[in-house]
Each structure stands twice: as C-alpha cells, then as structure tokens.
Write a structure and sequence with these properties.
The structure is a single chain. This protein is mainly alpha-helical and 223 residues long. It has one domain (21-221). It contains eight helices and seven strands. It has helices at residues 5-34, 39-48, 54-73, 84-95, 97-107, 123-141, 153-160, 183-186, and strands at 79-81, 114-116, 169-170, 181-182, 194-196, 202-204, 219-221. The strands form three sheets. A three-stranded antiparallel sheet has the order 1-7-2. A hairpin with a 5-residue loop joins strand 5 and strand 6 (202-204). It starts with a helix and ends with a strand. 37% of the residues are buried.
Length: 223
C-alpha cells in the first residue's frame, strides 16, 4: 500500500524543519566562536583586573564564549557561572546594552538574562546549575566528568589567573583548599550528560543527582 500524499508531505516538512533548525544551531555556534567583543568591554575588564595581561584577557573572553555556548545548549535551563573573572566580563558586556542584546539575538535567539545566586528561589537551583555547567563544559572539551584529567577552561580560569576572591576548583578533593571547590565531585553521579555531534556541537541529555558539591559561581543564565 502506497503512502498517502498528506503523510509524505508531513515527513518532508518534518525533515525540512529538522535541517533548518540544525543549520541555525550551527550558524549560532559559529557566530559565538568568531565573535569579537567590543574593545570598550575589554578596557572595562582591564580596569577591574589591571593585573591581567593581554593574553590573559584573551583567555577570559574565550571562557565567556564557552559559557555562552553551553548556555545555548542548556535550552533556557539554569547554567551557573563557575568563574568570577568570566562573570565580571559578562557584567561589562551586559552594560553595553544594545551590543549585548544584538549578540543574544544572533547567538541564542533570545535575551540571556543574568541571575545572581542570591536571587535564586532555592539552593537546589544553584546546585543543579553548577552540575549542568560542569556536564556541558566537560562535553565541550571532551573531558570525562567523573574522572577528569583536567578542568574545563571556565572552571580552571580563576585558579589559573589567581583571581582575588575567585572560585578555585581542584581535581583532587583531598587537596581541596579551604574555601575552594572540588570539581570532580560535581560529576560524581553521572556522566557529562552531553556529547559532541558531527558539527562539534554539544548537548545536555539530563541532570545528575546525588552530588553534595556546593555551587561555585554566583550567577547563571536562563529566562
């Protein structure tokens, strides 16, 4: 029995819709990867952190690109910010309101709000956000979240740059400094929950549970 015309049409339309959505995701990803931040944003961050070299500032803004990339993958779910200095860069970016709004439209398809930790309704939201950030950052850099050989850039940043009052993560919980955070413990109960596809994109397949790690960064994205 041959397929009916309406059914064939529905299948064709579904395939077209799928490829259009996928093409849009790839376009957004490339836009984030190639985005050049306004020099005024860089200048403001340099004033806030005068100890940072030009190369270190480049690292921070690459970390911000990585954060935006995983926020896009999280599909409006909370993604906590694990770095103080990257968060500072995000704050400066937001203050350039028109530029930031235009970036969000092209990179995310919606405005990415900044939610301070103290404004979150429960502590569990913050914890879920840092777990999601860990999974997606691991997937982005192809790191095993349960047995990481290194930290993803956005988790390593404050320690690498010796940021005052930054969020310092350690791979080895036994070496975790006072006031620091044990990164590998964040992913204790599940894998990344994220994987890379043929376009180099990453996805979040679900939340982990059962970890007791606290939230590192104070802020997260989401609507």
């Amino acid at each position: 029995m041959s397929l009916s015309f309406p059914l064939i049409s529905a299948v064709v339309l579904s395939l077209i819709f799928y490829f259009v959505i996928r093409a849009n995701k790839v376009k957004q990803l490339k836009f984030i990867e190639r985005y050049q931040f306004h020099k005024g944003i860089r200048h403001k961050l340099s004033q806030k952190h005068p100890q940072l070299t030009e190369q270190q500032l480049d690292m921070v803004f690459q970390g911000l690109r990585d954060y935006f990339r995983i926020c896009r993958q999280a599909k409006n779910r909370m993604v906590s910010m694990p770095s103080q200095v990257i968060d500072d860069a995000w704050h400066e970016f937001i203050l350039f309101t028109r530029i930031y709004e235009k970036f969000c439209t092209k990179a995310m398809g919606h405005f990415l709000h900044h939610t301070p930790a103290e404004a979150m309704s429960t502590q569990n939201i913050a914890k879920d956000g840092i777990k999601r950030s860990w999974r997606l950052a691991c997937a982005l850099e192809q790191i095993n979240p349960k047995k990481p050989a290194r930290l993803p850039l956005i988790f390593a940043m404050d320690g690498l740059l010796n940021i005052n009052n930054g969020f310092v993560y350690q791979l080895d919980c036994k070496k975790n400094p006072a006031g620091g955070y044990c990164a590998s413990h964040i992913g204790c109960s599940s894998g990344c929950g994220g994987s890379s596809d043929s376009s180099g994109d990453v996805s979040d397949s679900g939340d982990s549970s059962g970890c007791s790690s606290g939230c590192g960064g104070g802020c997260g994205g989401g609507d």
